[in-house]
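lol ok so funny story. i was supposed to be doing the assay writeup but got distracted and ended up predicting the structure for this chain instead. priorities right. anyway since i did it might as well share w the group, maybe its usefull for someone
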Amino acid sequence: MKTKREIFRPSFGNRPDQLIGRDEVIDRIMEGLQSYPGSADRSVLLVGQRGMGKTALLLELADRASALDYVPVRVTCGEAMLENLIELLQREGTQYIKETRRSVKGVSAGALGFSFGLTFSEEAQRSFGFRVKLEMICEKLAKAGKRVLILADEVTPTVKEMRELATAYQELSGIDTEIAIVMAGLPAAVSDILNYKTLTFLNRAKRYELDLIPVGIVEGYYRSAFERASIKASPGIIREAAESTQGFPYQIQLVGYYLSKFSTDGKSVSSKTLHRVMQMVQEEVDEKVFRAMIHPLSDRDRVFLSAMAACDGVIKTADIESLTHFKHGMLQSYRSRLIDAGIITSPRRGELAFAFPQLADYLRRQESAQGA
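and the output, tada:
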């Protein structure tokens, strides 16, 4: 049986014991991975704000892809990502290469570019760059009936290595190499990738925006997880706990974690304990999610969002224009930028909404604190 600590894991990048609310996305991606080499369905973009479970989903996909004869490797966007990717493929893929050292000795081994398994010969290591090495590994794994799945986290188009990876993938998929790629990133970063002139081919990639989890699914998850964690709670407390998360994956894990921490063995969770937990969770989400989300925005962006937070009920674009006194062209510019950043949405023409309902409350608390 898993411990409470293993069931609820709220740290960023950690994987909870159960991934909820993503079944449809997972099924579509897995179906795409079974398509023909070079298919656009083999390139995927996962889009979501911090705390929406992108990394957890990548880890889930890695496990499931292994059953489809893929060799999955996960890297984080950065200067060392290409070197790490090759090394991980060598480590994870060597087990599928059936050969002995005796059979690959001599000149023929050097000509193939490998000295043993997926270890490059000294000449190949010295002479070839990332693109050629990746192709060589893919070809050798394909002979063993295996395909390569690259899982790239925290994608950033300004990183040279990210652009090199995307270009290499485009070239390899163009010659029907057995390879697929799933990239995950913040909305603004993914938007920049799609607009980057050398990466426009990614506009054909399947794009999945990770939304909030329906509260009903969260409630069902809590019933099961609380039982496994030996947390006693009434149906009313479970429902209130689920509603307090508003379907935000990071918050779902936080609430469960703190309830497991403060629950008393043998006693049912009280309303007082739940409200204490909700307050702690709110403070942590404010600091680690919303503050980080707002920090890179311009002053005008923040004025726009504050005007939205001041509106009751349906938020109309005309009301924002009246409150901010922005000219129409300027208003549309900020509107588009905040939508691309995944901070707001436009559910209907002329209307706006926060992508995270709690963000409006956060902005109002900030306004109140500054005015005090």
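Residues 102-111 have pLDDT under 50 and may be disordered. The chain is about 55% helix and 10% strand.
back to the writeup now i swear
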